[in-house]
Amino acid sequence: MSEDLSSWDVLVGRVKGHWDKASLRIVPFSDVANRFAAGAKWCAEIEGKRTLLEVKSSRAKDGGWICDCGLPSTEAAQSLTGAQLFIHKSMRPPTEEGEFYLDELFGMRVVSESGQELGEIEEVLETPAHDIYVTPRAMIPAVPDFIVSTDWEARVVTVRDVEG
Questions:
Q1: Residues 43, 78: contact at Cβ < 8 Å?
Q2: Are residues 108 and 85 part of one domain?
Q3: pLDDT tens digit at each of 164 positions of the chain
C-alpha cells in the first residue's frame, strides 16, 4: 500500500538535475541541518505526479546537496529534474513559545476590536519592514500597533480599529 502524499505540502527544495550515476542535485529552500541527510524523506512532485523518496546518502556541494535516493538509473534521476520537494508539516522542527510558521495563519479569522469581520487570512506578504496579513477586506501590518491578540485555539486574530 502506498503512502498518501497529498498532505505533504511544505516546500523544502527543488531538483536541479542529476549528478553522477542516479544521484539528484538539490537546491535547498530549507536550512534545517538534517533535511537532506541520510534517512530524510521527501515527496517529489513533477507534472502533477508525486513520488516518495528517501535519502540513502548525501553531501553538500556548491550551496546545494547531492543526494542518492536509491533511484534505479540515470534516466530515473533525469526524469525528476525540476521536481519540487515537499515534506509533511509534522516533519518541521517544533516552534518556540510565541513563534509560529506563516502557513499556520492561513484561514484564521480576522476581527477588529469593535467586532467587525475582516475575513480570513488568505496570504502573508513578506516585506523588509514587516509581514502583512491579507484578507478579502483588509491588509494588516503584522506589528504590535495593529495586532491586538492571536487566539490559536479559536483561530482568531484581533486587530485594532483604524479610522479610514
A1: no
A2: no
A3: 457 898 898 889 999 988 778 899 999 988 887 899 999 999 999 999 999 999 999 999 998 999 999 999 999 999 999 999 999 988 988 889 888 888 889 999 999 999 999 999 999 998 999 999 999 999 999 999 999 999 999 999 999 998 76
Q: Are residues 108 and 77 in the same domain?
A: no
Nearest to 42, CA basis, from 15, 23, 61, 66: 15
CA–chain centroid gap for 163, Å, is 35
Residue 158: count of CB within 10 angstroms of its CB: 16
Q: State which residues form the domain around 54.
A: 10-91
Q: Residue 50 in contact with residue 7, Cβ under 8 Å?
A: no
Q: Are residues 61 and 84 in the same domain?
A: yes
Give the CATH number of the domain where residue 137 resides.
2.30.30.240
End position of a domain, from candidates 91, 110, 144: 91
Query: What distance in Å separates the CA atoms of residue 25 and residue 64, rounded to the nearest whole number?
Result: 7
Contacts of 17 (CB under 8 A, 6+ apart): 24, 25, 78, 81
